[in-house]
Amino acid sequence: MASPCEVHVAEPDRALAERVVATAAAEAARIEAKFSRYRRGNVVDAINSARGRTIVVDEETARLLDYAHELNELSDGKFDVTSGALRRVWRFDGGDRVPSRDAVEQVLATVGWHRARWRSPELTLLPGMEIDLGGIGKEYAVDRAAALVRPLSARCLLNFGGDLLALGPQQHDRPWRVGVESVSGDAAAAKQIDLGVGALATSGDARRYLQKDGKRYGHILDPATGWPVVDAPRSVTVAAPTCTQAGMLATLALLRGRDAEAFLDAEGVQYWALR
Amino acid sequence: MQLKNGKSPTFRRIGAPLAAATCALLGQSAPREVAAQELMPWDIDTSLLIYSESDGRVRDTSLNARARKEIREEKFLDLTLAIDSLTGASPSGAVPASTVQTFTSPSGNSQYTVGAGAQALDTSFLDTRTALSANWEMPLTRLALLSVGASLSDEYDYTHTGLNARLARDFNNRNTTLSFGLALANDTISPVGGSPVPLAPLLGLGNQTNKRGDQSKDVTDLLFGVTQVLNRHTIVQLNYSLSQADGYLTDPYKLLSVVDPVTGNPVPGPAGSGLSRYLFERRPDTRDKQSLYGLVKRDFNGDVLEASYRYMTDDWGVDSHTVELRYRWSFGSGRYLQPHVRFYQQTAADFYRTVLFNGAPLPTYATADHRLGEFDGLTLGVKYGRATARGGEWSTRVEYYTQTGNPAPGSAVGALANFDLYPDLNALIAQFSYKFGRR
Predict the structure, then answer these.
(1) Which of A196, B178, B313, B382 has its CA 20 to 30 A from that of B355?
(2) Please, which residues 238-257 of chain A have a Cβ atom closer than 8 Å to chain B?
(3) Does residue B245 lie within any of the structural domains?
């Protein structure tokens, strides 16, 4: 999943703790293998190398595509699983290589969920289009792993690269203490959150950005323009019952740019935004 | 979080459709609960404590504040401030007499009298104490924790400076913690009117010829502790501590009455002073204490029982036993009631004397301080606490302390048999606390 995954278990029974870790790790590995766009031979690879042919997907992939479709609608097109193609011209490595307008325009012709034809379970993309489920995958993996671990009745915290979910507190009155990374590169956590149950997901550009002529380009791209969203918070952390919900709210907020906080306020969710 | 300026845009609310879509993705069993709370940057504890002895004796009003902050990840700074205001009267050590007794106050500038048969209380007792401490706590390794600190306190006749360090390390899957602590203190005593020459007589008004300058003492404390988690509900703790004090350990304000060995009546003091004979006390220059402390803490579905025992022994001949019990009874929505019982018993110091007899050779050391006598103390109390909505807590504690002791054997000669040579002490303790912050 290109980021460290941790499972913390607060149980004295070692065998139980090991079962929890093994279950979560197996599910994370399964989802990564199936949906990573960096792997050859999986369903995402099949879709991205279809060159205009229609691909019939399995039931789980169909549910994820339905979800992507729904989010695209709810965000007025801002959340778009086909916007990953823009990464061919945008490389957020902390450097200063901002692409030319022409280069962005050229890629933009292959971006846009409205250009895809999705009739579950059949997906047809235009040649040159590709999808990337990375924006949902990590949070989805946390929720899926949690669903498999829950029947084991262990107090635990799943942390897949900063997106996390607690199945109950460590002890009766001792929640999990979670640090939100500071955006200034400071080693100390910017905020600390006690999580008893539920999920926290963070979206941000703490380490993925470009900087040129004093202007900072965060890695959240607006599929309508092909350019990074401007004036978005550096990081948004949202609390929600599921990690997927939390992650989507955080991402949708960032896509709103300067109105990120107003959007989250209107949703009435618990959030922490760092600018 | 950013302050919004200008008018907020209006958004289509997507919470409900997003929740429904997420449910469709994850299945109907998707959880619907979340409990998250941001921690405040500081933990603050504040309290007001009132300790009041009966019969107008000592009254202490104490204000305490403690602030704790995580400065770096798992590195904490702890600051405390305490201000104590002591008023009232404290027993001077002299025994009652059938006649009025006159005493020169420590400053030598005034005198006070004590009625026939009354306990000799020094009413010039008044003090304000300010104490500060700072502590830094940091992990050394994943399993070892180091804390170092400094303390300072000041009152008009006493200054304390101290340094301390504690090292704790977890073993055995964090079920066992071994700790080692070291504390060093250096205190300066500047008694009002000077420090009296030990066992020298109390002199008349304006005569301070038997007073000397400032005194000091050094105290070293060592602590070895083991904490063991027995199971999910029980922990036990065992501490052994060693304390060595060196220097001026005498109380510069305490006296002993010198009485006639047959009649028990006061004998005349220094010529021309108009006083009876009272000698300033004298304690050894060193004191070595050892103590053993055991604690069991057990959780009964949210209620907590705490039972502890301490045995202390020192080379002054004082041995003490303390048994303490607390039961924290939680009755929902963060409220609890915690009854508390403490029983204390100590033997007298070898040099504890209620009086000195005229004509007998002077002992090397002598004190009539009741705190070094043989006594039993019983504390009964109850604490009520209530959590606030933001994770803080209010609490009120009320306790009653009663102490009964015995004079040194063979003291009640002649007229002294008519007096209570070790009066009971009763005190009321009330404390109001408020904590808030990140807990």
Answers:
(1) B313
(2) 239-242, 244-245, 248-249, 252, 256
(3) yes
pTM: 0.69
* CATH code of the domain in which B303 resides: 2.40.160
Q: Which residues pair with B48 in a beta bridge?
A: B63, B432
Q: Is B18 in CB contact (< 8 Å) with chain A? A: yes
B437 and B43 Cβ atoms separated by less than 8 Å:
yes
pLDDT in tens, chain A (275 residues): 457 888 999 988 899 999 999 999 999 999 999 999 888 999 999 999 999 999 999 999 999 999 999 999 999 999 999 988 888 888 877 777 888 888 889 889 889 999 999 999 999 999 989 999 988 999 999 999 999 999 998 999 999 988 999 998 887 667 898 888 777 666 566 788 889 999 999 988 666 677 777 777 777 889 889 888 888 888 899 999 999 999 999 999 999 989 999 999 999 899 999 88
In a domain, residue B289? The reply is: yes
Residue pair A208/A176 in contact by the 8 Å Cβ criterion: no
Q: Residue B345: which domain range?
A: 90-118+148-436
Strands annotated E in B347-416: 355-357, 374-387, 393-406
Quick check: B26 and A143 CB within 8 A? yes
B369 touches B281 (CB < 8 A): yes
Q: Structurally, what CATH architecture does the domain formed by A5-274 represent?
A: Roll (3.10)
Domain annotation covers residue B417: yes
